[in-house]
Amino acid sequence: MRDTASFIDAAKAMAPQIQASAEESERTRRLPMPLVEAMARAGLFRLWIPRALGGEETDPMTLVRVIEAISQVDGATGWCLMIGSLYGLFGGCLPAAAAHEIYGRDPLVITGGAFRSAGQAIAVDGGYRVTGRWAFGSGCQHSVWIVGGCRIFDGDQPRFGADGTPAVRILFFPAADCEILDTWQSVGLRGTGSHDYAVTDLFVPAARSLSFREPPVQTGPLYALPVIALFAAGIAAVPLGIARHAVDMLTELASTKVAVRSRQTVNTHAMLQADLGRAEALLRSGRAFLYETLGEAWDVVTAGNTLSLKQRVMLWLAATQATTAATQAVDLMFSAGGSASVYANSGLERCVRDIRAAGQHVTVAPGNYETAGQAFLGFDMSATLFAIDDRSQG
């Protein structure tokens, strides 16, 4: 297996190609295939695929750092890498034969799609007949396999679990069986190609499905971590990278932009200096909280233990705070840039658009602060998103 530094170095080495592709991806609303293929050849989509399937099965901090490094160059590219690489985690959750079929045959395989249970899967002999339409299919145009969350039905009756909640599973379809609908007209992260996609009466074998509440198939510590909380950490890496990009751009701009009134470069202005200091503090503190919490969770599972509710909640909270702090840092940098920030060639306006789009994701939304507080006060969490990550409830 390669070491952590080699993956981060590979991500950083891709910066020139990402920069050269950024305008095309913004215009066409998808990543150029040569860029996607280059990331795949570098192994960046295989970091969380099990070693048993030829993947790297790295620790979570490594992948988050790689996503952060790519997002520092371009947020949309970082987002697509995040989706494609995080979904490699499913290789540790699927039955062995299906995991090999999806992740073990093609070393350049990429998986995309959405978890939201917008589909209906009717149980039939050997699997399900699936019909549904899902939004936010990031990377669907370059994925080989696409996932969709589905409610399970027995005939025309919805199935329920032992706890009374609807039975939901994540199903895998070959991308060729999906209809991609051109819906991604977005304010930010335009290059992610997060279009709607649909299937109609598609048969899906039962083995190509999983539930987050079921125990993983693979026994490595990576697959013992709560799935959605891990995804929240990966999502937070994108705003962290975007914010670092904004801080670096403002620092460079401040040394060349001359203020109309003072006729001095704006880096001499006390307000800009203070804003830059605040942004750096916000970014570093949010980032430190995220990596500290990930590291603590990793220590727990590598010791063979299970995360407590509070530890799972802390992962969500850290990802939310990292995203919030990064967004505040970008807002400060956009304001500090003055009139120059509004021009597309400044790069700051895209940082604002991209980070705002990323921050809308439910796993890092501000409502997580309230839910975390409820957990710390001992409230019942069974009706919250945190319960999804509790495999003991399966």
Report the CATH C-level class of the largest domain: Mainly Alpha
Output the CATH homologous superfamily of the largest domain.
Butyryl-CoA Dehydrogenase, subunit A, domain 3
Rg over CA atoms, rounded to whole Å, is: 21 Å
Overall mean confidence score, pLDDT: 93
Beta content comes to 15-25%
Major sheet size, sense and barrel closure: 8 strands, mixed
Total strands: 8
Order of helices and strands: HHHHHHEEEEEEEEHHHHH
**Low-pLDDT stretches:** none
Q: Give the helix/strand class.
A: alpha+beta
The CATH topology of the largest domain is what?
Answer: Butyryl-CoA Dehydrogenase, subunit A, domain 3
Compile the SSE list and pairings.
Elements: H1 4-13, H2 15-28, H3 33-41, H4 60-71, H5 75-86, H6 96-104, E1 111-124, E2 127-137, E3 145-154, E4 157-158, E5 168-174, E6 179-181, E7 195-205, E8 209-210, H7 227-254, H8 270-302, H9 309-336, H10 348-358, H11 367-376
Helix pairs in contact: 1-4, 4-5, 4-7, 5-7, 7-8, 7-9, 7-10, 8-9, 9-10, 9-11
Description of the molecule:
- There is one protein chain.
- It contains 11 helices and 8 strands.
- The protein has 394 residues and is of the alpha+beta class.
- It folds into 3 domains: 101 residues, Acyl-CoA dehydrogenase/oxidase, N-terminal domain (Butyryl-Coa Dehydrogenase, subunit A, domain 1); 100 residues, Butyryl-CoA Dehydrogenase, subunit A, domain 2; 169 residues, Butyryl-CoA Dehydrogenase, subunit A, domain 3 (Up-down Bundle).
- A hairpin with a 2-residue loop joins strand 3 and strand 4.
- 51% of the residues are buried.
- The model has no long low-confidence stretch (mean pLDDT 93).
